[in-house]
Amino acid sequence: MYLDFAEILQKGFSAFHHLKKGFDAMENRKFQISLEEFVKSINLTPIPEALVFRAWVKFHRIPKDLNSEETRQIIETCIEDCFVSLIIDPNYGNSFNDIGLYFKFLGYKVQSESFFELASESTRCTFPALPQVNLTVTKKENGDFLTALRFALTALDFDPDDHAIRDQCLSLRKMLS
Questions:
Q1: Element spanning 142, H or E
Q2: What letter would DSSP give residue 137?
Q3: Cross-strand pairs, 124
Q4: I need a labelling partner for 131 at 20 to 30 A (CA). Which of 30, 101, 160, 163 fits?
Q5: Helix (H) or strand (E) holding 55
Q6: Beta strands per DSSP E along 83-130
Q7: Is 92 helix (H, G, I), strand (E, B) or coil?
């Protein structure tokens, strides 16, 4: 048996094509189409982004009237997708960040903060300001305003044009003065 590199390359290109179509559909708020494209991408070859964004779409499509056990089951599959993506790419910060969000939603604050910290230290993150923003919110909720400000300023370094982050910095500075 031998490896067919042409087939491997074709699958990879096709997977990235479906990943891009999934992102495009997501930007246009066509979540069912984005979910289908991410699944097609994953079925060809598991790409960390496809796994994480499939989880994100599933999480954001949870019906408001869904009972807590069904909601928990969906969130657990989202966490599983993120962990699988970390097996493929242990440096993909979005995976850590999203696991943190899912744990926070489930009420596991300590675990969520740990995953936000791992995300902030990762070498690859689609939106590097996001873990910093999540740590800002977490630290602020815990009453640690100085550390919250430090994370907010780091987020601002990543995204200096973000008015919400800038407002968060101003608010925290007022709290500390």
A1: none
A2: H
A3: 92
A4: 30
A5: helix 48-60
A6: none
A7: strand
Q: What is the pTM of this model?
A: 0.87
* Cα separations in angstroms, 105 against 32, 59, 68, 83: 23, 10, 12, 17
Tell me, what DSSP letter sits at residue 130? H
Percent helix / strand / coil, the chain, rounded to 5: 80, 0, 20
Q: Which residue has the tokens 């780091």?
A: 154
* Residue 132 Cα distances to 12, 63, 65, angstroms: 32, 28, 31
Q: What tokens were used for 16?
A: 């990235």
Per DSSP, the three-state class of 30 is: coil
Tell me the mean pLDDT in the region 42-62. 93
- Within 8 A by CB and 6+ apart from 129, the residues are 155, 156, 158, 159, 162, 165
Kindly report, residue by residue over 15-33, the tens digit of the pLDDT.
999 999 999 999 999 999 9
84-123: pLDDT as tens digits: 999 999 999 999 999 999 999 998 999 999 999 999 999 8
Closest CA to 85 of 54, 128, 46: 46
Given a cut of 60, whether residue 151 has pLDDT beyond it is yes
Nearest to 85 by CA among 122, 32, 131, 114: 122
| CA 139/CA 64 separation, integer angstroms | 28
Q: Which has the closest alpha carbon to 79: 62, 63, 98? A: 98
